[in-house]
């Protein structure tokens, strides 16, 4: 089994940016958000179950999942959120495990927004947290997703708080500055962590 570095952080923290910097070192990236899209691809059995439950309002005109519409429904209802999670999480986990076992690289980067919430840290050899202040999270996520503040606040509330997340971290990348100002620093930190993980991977 390859060495697994779990990358996590709250919404709007910049996980994708950090993952892209690791990818430049040819590190395999297994992203839970991408896997989540794959299991509900157009025509998939899971998407059909979701549409049957919520109605056609959560489908786009061409039959794909309308994530924005689904998000609004789910985050207004705890029971609907639980129903969706119970449907999707097992399928997502199976696919992620399949991808984790197929790589022969020294280590893989496993990008999971809810790594801590879903108790997946025990499956990682190392946990890397991208840290950002709640105010910046809210600002970035609102702009990026064209979402209302209230929706982003609900998502943030469903995630562990900042202090809890940091308590699980073996390594931390702080990402409060705008990317244009921070890219050089982020690149340097990723380069150093890459070398550390290559060394650690040899001990597994």
3D structure, described in words:
With 204 residues, the chain is of the alpha/beta class. It has two domains: 1-28 and 106-204, P-loop containing nucleotide triphosphate hydrolases (Rossmann fold, 3-Layer(aba) Sandwich); 36-102, no CATH class. It has nine helices and five strands. It has helices at 15-23, 32-39, 45-54, 67-74, 78-102, 134-145, 149-158, 162-167, 179-201, and strands spanning 3-8, 29-31, 107-111, 126-131, 171-174. Strands 2-3-1-4-5 form a five-stranded parallel β-sheet, sandwiched between helices. Helix 2 packs across helix 5 and helix 6 crosses helix 7. The longest helix has 25 residues, at 78-102. The radius of gyration is 17 Å and the shape is globular.
| Distance N to C terminus | 9 Å
Kindly estimate the percentage of residues that lie in beta strands according to DSSP: 5-15%
Mean pLDDT: 92
Question: What structural category arises from helix and sheet content?
Answer: alpha/beta
Q: Can you give the helix content as a percent range?
A: 40-55%
Q: Under the CATH scheme, which class of the largest domain?
A: Alpha Beta
- Which residues form runs of ≥5 with pLDDT under 50? none
Strand order of the largest sheet: 2-3-1-4-5
Question: What value does the Rg take, in angstroms?
Answer: 17 Å
Any idea what the CATH architecture of the largest domain is? Answer: 3-Layer(aba) Sandwich
Number of helices: 9
Tell me the overall shape. globular
Fourth CATH level, the homologous superfamily of the largest domain? P-loop containing nucleotide triphosphate hydrolases
Return the string of H and E elements: EHEHHHHEEHHHEH
How many domains would you count in the coordinates?
2
